[in-house]
Amino acid sequence: MVFITPRITVPDDELHETFVRASGAGGQNVNKVSTAVELRFSIFENLTIPYDVKQRLIALGGRRVNNEGVLVLFIQTHRTQEMNRKAAEARFVELVLKAALPPPPPRIATKPTRGAVKRRLVGKAIRATVKSNRKRPEGEDEL
Question: Cα(102)–Cα(125) distance, rounded to whole angstroms?
């Protein structure tokens, strides 16, 4: 049983782990031992995760959630299978905790301050005088 919050728990039988050979450095160990962990979790089969948290988990998962609603985490950062298992479980818990946080409140639109408006208008006036100084002076005839 994986405890995420007091309300959210995931039974061990809902987390499916498969072990495959990892890529990268490691010599004979990487060629012989299946150390990489592929953790699969079917989001909609779990009954303890609220629906809104499931929706945020799908959004946070991005490419890691397939069309069937299965979250797939592939971990091969460590050299041992046990450390990769712990890292996969930690990353899963972190992802669900992040999804369990309520979304931030929407931003309330405010008007610019009087000082900000004044600074903007002063800047525009300065820019206008710079551009008007580039014009040919009035009243001068061409030679």
Answer: 46
The boundaries of the domain holding residue 15 are 2-100
Percent residues over pLDDT 90 in the chain: 22
- Note whether 35 and 80 are within 8 A (CB): yes
C-alpha of 140 from chain center: 64
Query: Which residue in this structure is represented by tokens 């014009």?
Result: 135
Give the CATH number, domain containing residue 15.
Answer: 3.30.160.20
Residue 43 belongs to a domain: yes
pLDDT of residue 143: 58
Query: Residue 140 pLDDT more than 70?
Result: no
Mean pLDDT (the chain, rounded):
85
**Domain count for the chain:** 1
DSSP state letters, the chain: -EESSSS-EE-GGGEEEEEEPPPSS-THHHHH---EEEEEEEGGG-SSS-HHHHHHHHHHHGGGB-TTSEEEEEE--SSSHHHHHHHHHHHHHHHHHHHHSPPPPPPPP-PPPHHHHHHHHHHHHHHHHHHHTTSPPTTPPP-
The structure's pTM equals: 0.66
